[in-house]
Amino acid sequence: MKTTLLHIKNMVCPRCIEAVRNLLVQAGYTPTDVTLGQAQLDNDTPVDPATVAPLLREAGFDVVMGRADQLTEQIKTALVEYLEHLRTARMPLTTSAFLTDRFAATYSHLSKVFSRTANLTIEKYLIRLKIERVKEMLSYNEMTLSEIAEKMRYSSGQHLSNQFRQVTGRSVSEFRRDLLPRRLSLDQLA
């Protein structure tokens, strides 16, 4: 099956977009638009996703074949954007409102598809995503735990601290004492 739109897993940042674009060009394809989770190819150069998958896999990406998997990857990408929305919006939307606006689908449907394909609820994935962002902020050692909690929209530093321990198995102080804090790449969250 030839297509001009590839759905690609594990794209989480602008460097990923550039890496995928370069991989496709090196393989002889003409990408017209590459965004988080997708690569649109020129109509004259359709591709069989199965042939480009090994090339992308070698670089840490993967082609998403099924519709449920595609939707799950799109939800993951939207949740990364939601974290930025949380951080910057004066009156942020709830997760469900943000996702239903983005996908024009009920939250119940999105949640069922995500849970089935990711083996994790949207809420738990978002918590893991937030904790990874918290680890990043902690590793810079520029803000107090209370400041990080406020920036990440936690009700208190204690709430953040409790959730951090639940997810990582370590306290915030243990994480800060660690000389080489171990962070997870976003594709390892689910």
TrEMBL record:
Residues 77-178 form the HTH araC/xylS-type domain. Keywords: DNA-binding, Transcription, Transcription regulation. Transmembrane segments: none annotated. PROSITE patterns: HTH_ARAC_FAMILY_2 (PS01124). SMART domains: HTH_ARAC. InterPro entries: HMA_dom_sf, Homeodomain-like_sf, HTH_AraC. It comes from the Bacteria. One of its GO terms (molecular function) is DNA-binding transcription factor activity. This is Helix-turn-helix domain-containing protein. It comes from Hymenobacter rubripertinctus.
